[in-house]
Amino acid sequence: MSLKHILLGILQQPHSGYDVKKTFDHVFSNFWAAHLSQIYPQLKRLTDQGLLTVQDAESSKGPNKKVYQTTAKGQRELVDWLAHGPVTNTEKLAYLAQTFFLGALESHADRIQFMEQLLLHMQHWHQTLCAIQDQVKAEYPNYPHGLPDEEFYPNLTLMLGVKKVGAKVAWVQESLALLQERQ
Amino acid sequence: MSLKHILLGILQQPHSGYDVKKTFDHVFSNFWAAHLSQIYPQLKRLTDQGLLTVQDAESSKGPNKKVYQTTAKGQRELVDWLAHGPVTNTEKLAYLAQTFFLGALESHADRIQFMEQLLLHMQHWHQTLCAIQDQVKAEYPNYPHGLPDEEFYPNLTLMLGVKKVGAKVAWVQESLALLQERQ
DNA sequence: CAGCCCATGTAACGCGTTACATGATTAG
DNA sequence: CTAATCATGTAACGCGTTACATGGGCTG
């Protein structure tokens, strides 16, 4: 039941469903993904439950928008979620499951190739996150202490992203070296 | 569609549904969780599709078991999954979403408490993984080079687990220090 | 005028979670 | 005898993915 709470969090500021999707892609892609086909029905359900308000609005480009915003009741739900303590053990890493069974591939070259693909992916991801962090650093010279609240907590997730993906890059490189030794 | 492939991977060796669940809890808990109520129907479906075989067997303790094993067709499906390249961007970290919105908690003490709970969780998880790794190291003096294939690939997932959770512990500690500075 | 971005949805199907339901054996 | 472990499932409901469906406006 986290999509609900993430929407309540994002919609503390007013946004359309389409904008919410962009927020997922740009800001949350590090740890959560959602499709438009999930977001639209969920927004309607939360509005029916009195956790969001809707308002029609004109768009600068394209058709009219529906702008949603979290209500006081929705805000209470969000705070309850946070106050209930960290929700853990949500992780599902398909590529690690694949790594576990990598021995099922007949050829050594195929296993190496798998890891090389993984390396490219992780390096790309790491560079993306580092670039975003560099931007934030450039904007706030006293980083991370000088960040205002509305940037500080989001930035914590960025800091974990960089560390975590860095660890993954190092791991793939180490794994590749071990694999190549094995022949 | 990964549960299917993980089952095909586990059932390269014969196991009952109940045993498969224990494998998830002990070996996969690092990166994948599954409930018995998912596993049982899925095993039936995969058997109907000719990807698994079933056989009745007696149990040493308790009622009779149904022992499943991957067929040649199932093995081909597993290999296809691996050959298709790493499946990435599956991650959903609810506690990071919570961290993102931590500013919604009114009191500073509540935010500190959230991070302290997260620290305890991550430290516990890290110790568990390190203990397992120490066991493997003790068993194979030439670790990790001397591992046989059936241990080598699973051990790669353990190595990432240790690195990744280590990065998370360091991050929570750093975040706590930053939070305490902010007052 | 073709292709992309803006904008909102529905439908089908499979995965994930919690609760319910049953019953045997074993360790304390 | 009580609690834990062994063993297998069903039901209800919500989440996640892919495909389908529509149509306006902007850029090259």
Describe the structure.
2 copies of one chain form a homodimer. Chain A is mainly alpha-helical. Chain A folds into 2 domains: 3-83, Winged helix-like DNA-binding domain superfamily/Winged helix DNA-binding domain (Arc Repressor Mutant, subunit A); 94-182. Helix content of chain A is 64%, strand content 8%. The first copy, chain A, has 7 helices and 3 strands, in the order H-E-H-H-E-E-H-H-H-H. A 3-stranded antiparallel β-sheet of chain A has the order 1-3-2. The mean pLDDT of chain A is 94. The interface between A and B is large, with 68 and 68 residues. The first copy, chain A, binds a DNA duplex (28 and 28 nucleotides) through helix 3.
In short:
The structure is a homodimer of 183-residue chains. Chain A is mainly alpha-helical and 183 residues long. The first copy, chain A, contains 7 helices and 3 strands, in the order αβααββαααα.
